[in-house]
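Project outcomes to date are best conveyed with an example. Our students and postdoctoral researchers have been running inverse folding experiments weekly, and each run begins with a structure described purely in tokens. The record below, which covers 453 residues, was selected by the lab manager from last quarter's runs and is presented without edits.
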């Protein structure tokens, strides 16, 4: 696969930044509720509050959609993120709630797209946990049982039965969800927000969040905002303030790359008839998906820990792009000559439990981390439920599922540079072993054929 002419972008490969970015805050203002962060989570909270007649201000450091909301792979998941076998081991009682939340979240986004008539190339294909080895196929079967037992909707099948490329043995289809252009979706939500009564202020970084009696006070470079309630929706960037609970999440940089446009006949020859997005069952996944522009977007495979705040603006490491390209050529040998055209990445937040979570720091400061790589569906849904909680004073049962009574979190394990490198190395070792087994099987069947002749 060619990687010598890749366009590295510090924003997203899906869309350009909006042309109408709003001016920075200049002076002080007051409001009832302030939302910090204009990703899918924060925008959903602000929009719902505005729709429900609340006096709401949203502050965004760059422009709404600047974060991972516009940069992700666009796979709208209908199942929770993380290692479901481990989650089932530690949080078995929570599983039915988590599965229900994940499915409701995907439907919520589908309804949002329809309600606001957002053109984001959405296809309700579902997504597949795809196996690249017999070991991964066993894992897929175990995970499917866990999800079904908890009331979720999945189907297990071979690659032929699922309509996915033959480079994968088979997998588990999440029936609910699909894929979209997340950049178009996020900018569509931004448009809906700008058309609402919410006051949106972009290019304004909140440098501190403090309390003054009953009020929350936000500091920005050129003015203060005072509010009765605040919602922290800055995802991976949350650790920048002292008020953020310790160990709430760790910031991790992940990347996606996109091929050049591929001849539709070559794409059709892959047997990818379902067009479902694919996520491999490595400890650190690889994801692959078709796009409406006849390209394939794929990525992750390595997690890069952000070690200090403020998080740097980054472009992907060319060595990782190279590594992803090699993996692509293994999964899609017929497309090994295709070039990588662009690469980008973004910061996600991983919680120590790998569960999405939400809660209150005190009576009037709310937070949520609905990410763990699955926030495309969950961030907008949880953001909306937090708005409803603020207005109604009651938690929806899906918000209850991830609610933290106390903002206390254990130090995350294996999330340092060494831990992440070790997980990556185990994946590569398994790939190597599976590759040799595959070659040995091919060699054995060739020998049998020639002996028979
Ligand atoms: C490469 C990649 C692939 C992914 N793939 C998928 C996928 O296929 N499916 C899926 O479900 N999820 C995926 N995700 C995760 C998903 O994108 C996120 O979970 C989701 O977008 C989180 O939304 P958010 O609103 O919480 O955060 P963000 O979109 O990150 O928004 C946070 C916002 O806060 C702003 N901000 C930060 N600090 C401040 C401050 N001090 N003051 C004011 N504003 C501030 C930022 O500028 C940003 O706009 C992926 C993520 C990445 C990066």
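After processing, the design step wrote out the following sequence:
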């Amino acid at each position: 696969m060619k990687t010598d002419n890749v366009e590295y972008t510090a924003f997203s490969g899906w869309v350009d930044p909006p042309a109408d970015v709003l001016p920075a805050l200049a002076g002080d203002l007051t409001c009832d509720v302030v939302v910090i962060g204009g990703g899918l989570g924060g925008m959903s909270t602000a929009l719902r509050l505005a729709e429900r007649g609340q006096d709401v201000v949203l502050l965004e450091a760059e422009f709404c959609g600047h974060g991972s909301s516009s940069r992700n792979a666009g796979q709208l998941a209908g199942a929770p993120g993380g290692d479901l076998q481990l989650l089932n081991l530690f949080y078995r009682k929570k599983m039915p709630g988590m599965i229900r939340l994940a499915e409701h979240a995907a439907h919520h986004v589908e309804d949002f797209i329809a309600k606001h008539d957002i053109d984001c190339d959405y296809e309700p294909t579902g997504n597949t946990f795809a196996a690249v080895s017999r070991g991964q196929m066993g894992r897929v079967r175990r995970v499917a049982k866990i999800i079904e037992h908890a009331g979720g909707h999945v189907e297990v099948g071979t690659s032929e039965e699922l309509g996915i490329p033959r480079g994968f043995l088979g997998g588990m289809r999440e029936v609910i969800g699909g894929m979209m252009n997340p950049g178009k979706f996020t900018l569509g939500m931004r448009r809906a927000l700008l058309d609402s009564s919410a006051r949106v202020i972009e290019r304004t970084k909140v440098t501190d969040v403090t309390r003054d009696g009953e009020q929350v006070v936000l500091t920005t470079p050129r003015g203060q905002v005072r509010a009765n309630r605040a919602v922290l929706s800055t995802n991976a960037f949350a650790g920048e303030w002292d008020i953020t609970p310790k160990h709430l999440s760790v910031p991790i940089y992940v990347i996606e790359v996109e091929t050049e446009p591929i001849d539709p006949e070559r794409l059709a020859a892959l047997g990818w008839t379902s067009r479902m997005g694919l996520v491999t069952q490595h400890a650190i996944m690889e994801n692959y998906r078709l796009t409406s522009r006849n390209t394939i977007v794929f990525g992750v495979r390595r997690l890069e820990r952000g070690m200090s705040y403020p998080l740097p603006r980054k472009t992907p490491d060319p060595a990782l792009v190279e590594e992803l390209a090699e993996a692509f050529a293994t999964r899609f040998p017929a497309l090994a000559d295709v070039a990588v055209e662009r690469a980008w990445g973004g910061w996600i937040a991983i919680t120590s439990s790998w569960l999405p979570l939400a809660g209150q720091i005190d009576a009037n400061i709310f937070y949520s981390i609905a990410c763990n790589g699955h926030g495309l569906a969950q961030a907008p849904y949880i953001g909306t439920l937090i708005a409803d909680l603020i207005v109604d004073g009651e938690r929806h049962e899906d918000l209850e599922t991830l609610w933290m009574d106390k903002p206390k979190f254990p130090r995350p394990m294996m999330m340092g540079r060494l831990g992440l490198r070790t997980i990556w190395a185990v994946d590569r070792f398994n790939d190597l072993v599976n590759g040799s087994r595959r070659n040995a099987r091919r060699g054995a069947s060739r020998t049998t054929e020639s002996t028979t002749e």
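Residues 7-404 form a domain with the FAD/NAD(P)-binding domain fold (CATH 3.50.50.60). The CA atoms of residues 37 and 234 lie 5 Å apart. The training component of this project remains on track.
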